[in-house]
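ok here's the first one, seq then C-alpha cells
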Amino acid sequence: MLSTEEALRLVLGYAGPQVEKIVPLTDSAGYVLAEDIHSDIDMPPFDRSAMDGFAVCGDEHTHDLIKEITAGETRRIGIEPGRAAPIMTGAPIPHGADRVVMIEDCTTRESVLYLERVPPKGANICWRAEDITAGQMVLEKGTPLAQQHLGIAAMAGRGVLKVFGRPSIGILTTGTEVVPPTWIPSPGHVRNANMPLMIAQLQLAGFTDVISMHAADDPSSIEVSISQLLETSDVLVLAGGVSKGTRDFVPSVLESLGVSIHFRQVAQKPGKPLLFGSFPSGQPVFGLPGNPLSVMVSIEEYVLPLLRMMSGFKGCHKRLYHGLMTSEYSKKPGRLHYLRVLAYREGDLWKLHLPDTSGSGDLMSSVNVNALAMVGANALSVMSGDILPFHFLSSTAGELSFA
C-alpha cells in the first residue's frame, strides 16, 4: 500500500505535455500564462500630472494663469517662469513645467495664482517610463492570471494572450442504490451527493469544463459511460465501485478497456481504496471510494494537483501550515489520517478545531471546515495542544492553498 507522498508523486508523473492556446485578453482570467509579456511602450508614455492642480515653472509664489490642460490634450503646450496652467489628473505636463501644485495649496484671483506653499521640484508629476520602459518584461510565463495581470497586459498593448489550456474532466458516479437529489429515496436508496460535490470542488478550483454522468452497478452500463466520457475528457474521475465487493465493477471494467492500473490503495483515511490508472490514449483516470468525504479528500489531495500541473501552474503541492489542536483524537497506526478542521487565527497562532463526527462518512461534520490536518501514519493519538501540519482547502484559500 502506497504512502500519500508516493501516490501523489506517481499521479503527477502522468500529467503529460501542457497544451498551449491563444485566448482573448478579456477571457484569460484564471488561466496560466504560457509566454513572457513585454511592454511595447513606456509607461507612463508621457510626463503627466498625478492630480488636479496647477502646472508651474520655478518656485515663485505668484503666477499668471493660462488656459487649462485637460486629460487627453494633444496640443503641444509650453510654459514659462511666472506662468501657471490649470491641469487635470492624467493630463500631459506642459514643456517647461517642473512641478504641479495641489489645488489645496493655492488660491486664484483675477487670473493670478497665489501659492501658499511651494512644492519641491518634480512634485506631483508622473514621469515618462517611471513605471515601465519599452521592452521591459512585465509578466512572466507561468503567472496565474488575475485581474491585475490582465490590466498590466492591456497596458503592454496585448489584446490576446498565449496561455496553458485547462483539461476537461469527465465525472462518473456509480451505484444502483444512488438516486438524483430531487428524488425521495425509497428503502435502500441514497441521494447522489457526490456529483454536485465533485463538480463544485472542481469549479471552485477553476476547472469548469466538466461533463458528468451516472451509471448503475452494471459492467456494461459502466463501460458505456466511461467510453462516452473518454471521447471528450482529458481526465476521468469515477466515484464508487472501486473496493473489493461483489458489485464493485469499476476496476475490472477499466482493465477491460486497456487501462493500466498504477495503484489501488493508499495508506490514508478517509480514502484508502483509491485507484489511479491511465488509458492507452494517455488520459489519467481516478477511481474514488463512494463516500462523499473520501471523494472530497481524494480530489483535494490528488486530482486538483494533477489538473494544476496539466494547466501550467507552478504550485501543484499543498502549502503546509502548522496549527495547535484544541481537542483530542486517537487512531490506529498504519495510515495517515486527514482530519476535517476549522483553522482560525488567535494571536500569532493558528488553532485547529475538530468538529464532532460520527465517522468518515459523516459529511455534515464538514459543514464549517476550511482545512485538512494531517496525523502521521505511525501516530496513535493527538492531544489538545499538539501542533499538527495542515493545509487549507483550495475552495477556501485558492492559490494560498498551493505552493
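and now the second one, same deal
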Amino acid sequence: MSDQISDQKSAQAPSSDVDGKAPDTERNAGKGEEEPAKKGEGIRTKVRNHPIAFAAGSIVLIACIVGGILWYLNSRHYTSTDDAFIDGRPISINLQVTGSIVAVPVTDNQMVKVGDLLIKIDDRDYRAAVDLAQSQIEQAQANVDSFSAQIFAQESQITQTETQVTQAEATRDFSKDQDKRYQDLAQTGAGTVQRAQQATSELRANSAALGSTRAANKVAERQINVLNAQRKNARAQLAQAQAQKAAADANLTRTQLYATADGRVTRLTAAVGQLAVPAQGVMILVPFDIWVTANFKETQLADIRIGQPVDIAIDAFGRHFPGHVNSVQSGSGTAFSLLPAQNATGNYVKVVQRIPVKITFDERPDVQLGPGMSVVPTVTVR
C-alpha cells in the first residue's frame, strides 16, 4: 500500500514540473525579450508625445558640447588669477622739526597736487635762529675784511721797510768808502786824523742803522704771517656761521610740508594746536601712479611675457580696463617675506609658489582706485 502511494507521488512530480515550472520559465524568457523592446517603445513614445522638449534638450546638449569645446580652445589663449590687487607707493608724511602745528589746510581723502601745502608748524623760533646765524655770518665776514685790510697795510709796511733797507745799505756803502778814503789820507798826511775818526764814526752809525732797518723788515714780514693766520681763523668762523645759517634755513623750510606728488590724503592725524615731534607720521599721501600686482602661480608663468595685453577687472566697480605686463619679479613672494621659508630645515612639502607680476594700466582709470583693492587680471598669452 505504501509502495503504491510513493509511486503515485513520483508519477505526479513530472506532471507538476510541466504544469508549474516550465510555463513560468517560458513566461520569464518572454519578458526578458520584451523589456528592451518596451523600453525602446517607451522612449519613442515619449519623443512622440513631447517632440518640442526633446528637440530643446538636444539643442541644449549640442550647445553645451560645442560651447565646452570652444571654451577649451579659447581658454588656452588666456591666463588669469584672482590673487591680485591694486598696488602703489604711498608716501608717509612725517614731521622733521619740533613745534606747534598752526595750520592743516587739507582734509581726509582730499586730492592734492605737487607743491600744495599740507602742514604748517610755528616757525618763529626757526626764523630767530636764521637771523642769529645771519648776524654771525656778518660778524665773521667783518673780521675777515678787517684782517684783510691789516694784511694789505702790513704789505705796504714791508715794502717801505725794504726801501729803507736799500737806502741804509747805500748809505752804509758810501760811509765805508768814505772811511777808507780818509784813513788813507790820514796815513799819508794829506788828511787829518780827526776827519778819519769822524768817517769811521759815520760808518758805524750807518751800519747800525742798516741793521735796525733789516730787523724792522723781518718784524713786518713776521707780522703779516700772524695776520694771515688770524684771517684764516676768521674765514673758518665765517664758514661755520654759514653752515649754521644753512642748517637754520633747512629747519625753517621743514616747518612747512608740501606734497611731493599728485594724489590723495589718507590717514590724516594732524590737527591745529598739536605738538609736532620729529619722525611723527601725520598723514599718508597716495599717489595717482598705481599698478596691479598679480600673484600668478609659477606654473602659469611659462607663457607670460613682458608687454602682453591684459584685461583688468576691478571688483569694486565691475568694470574692465586695458593694461599690459610690465615686469615679473625675480623670486617668489615668500622669498622676500619677513620670515622666508627655510625648505632645508624640517619636513619639506612641495607647494606651488606665487610669483608677483607687475601690470600697468594703458591709461589712468577714471575711477578712484587705491592700494589693496581686489582685481582680476586676464593676460592674453597667445
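notes on #2: Helices lie at 2-49, 51-75, 124-188, 193-253. Confidence is low (pLDDT under 50) at residues 1-31.
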